[in-house]
Design goal:
This protein has about 230 residues and is of the alpha+beta class. The chain has 2 domains: about 130 residues, no CATH class; about 80 residues, Alpha-Beta Plaits, CATH 3.30.70.260. A 5-stranded antiparallel sheet has the order 2-3-1-4-5. Helix 3 runs antiparallel to helix 6, helix 3 runs parallel beside helix 7 and helix 4 packs parallel to helix 6. The longest helix has 25 residues. The protein is elongated, with a radius of gyration of 29 Å.
Length: about 230
Amino acid sequence: MDNTNFSDIFKSSFIEKTTSFSLTDSLIGLLVAFLVGLFIYAVYKKTFSGVIYSHSFNISLMIMTMATALIIMGISSNVLLSLGMVGALSIVRFRTPIKDPMDLVYLFWSIVAGILCGAGFIPLVIIGSILIGLILVLFVNKITIENPYLLIVKYDHASAEDPLEKVIKAKSKKYALKSKSIMPGDDLEITYEIRVKENDSHFMNELTAIQGVRSAVMLSYDGNFTA
């Protein structure tokens, strides 16, 4: 016998979920996520040492912290919803290339901070973020890393090789031959990995003044090529 009454017909699971929703806890979690994201924003801007600063990427770190906190708040009280969310997020593919390893560190930091804020570990995320920020500020811009250069020289006669190497040896702290190419029409190309003295690039004028040298290009190399 069906015992369904009038109230069961209009019973809504959506209303039940709404009544079990804690507005105060959610606002506190989102507020802390925003403040931590703002702190990550400031640390990234202060410690950025690349060529072109991306303001949009920095903003995305702050939004990612808040968005991750929202996801954790939504799935923390429902096991089935958490499994569905994992399946839905697993199909997301990010195509934007990340060239600097430090950018991955900031992305991971934002995600972890958002997870902790959404789970309610407010003291942990605050203390952890302060310590991480201090370490980044103290070490990222204080340690000077001497990146090598790639020197690419094009010349049209083998007689230019000896004076070319003499100039490189005199003007660089360390150098190593990486490749040598011989192309049709007596065109030659040689590539050196060099470490210049005190970022001195004036010796490039001496290289181009050598008889037979057609062009000389020096590229900074730190895992990516930068002209």
